Amino acid sequence: MATTEDLKLDRHGWLCLQPGVRHVRSPNQDRRPLLENISLLVIHNISLPPNRFGGKYVEQLFTNTLRADEHPFFAQIADLRVSAHFFIRRSGRIIQFVSCDRRAWHAGVSRFDGRDRCNDFSIGIELEGTDFEPFTDEQYLQLAALTTVLRNRYTLKAVRGHEHIAPKRKTDPGPYFDWHWYKRLTGWDWRQMPEGIASQRLVAV
After folding, report:
1. 126 given a catalytic annotation
2. What's the pLDDT tens digit per position in 82-111?
3. Rounded distance, CA 117 to CA 108, Å?
């Protein structure tokens, strides 16, 4: 599997292929606004079916191939047209769906720093997980490695959870995401992280 030192972006905004990194191109993406600076990193969680890990369903959701009849929950989401730039599995393996230079459809109705439409200026990373249990060490290490690569390429000025840019709609990455450890791994300044995180305690495991 790719390590921190191995992850690299090509000139088109795709991670270079290697063990532990795959490309699965999503149709749910488009051009960013002209001359838009990519300035925000957004962290999400996802599991399909809810609270179950592994399998093909997140990949199918992001490529519009999810079948509504395979699980009762899928009937609610099969017609959604959504994507993220990256999906990090529990094992730390990374799937990239959209070039970082293009707009993935991950944030929905959202607002950050006085601006709406966060998809325009953000990169979205989905962690395989839920609001109800911890993420894996492998996910944190790969998220940190990916964050470093992205910060070296783009003018990222802040990182937020989906819950911070769409607080009335979303709750992810949730109370089990360890912002403190993520900060230590990546070197973000507290001012670049969600408000109140410095004094926030992680939910006890």
Report:
1. yes
2. 999 999 999 999 999 999 999 999 999 999
3. 7
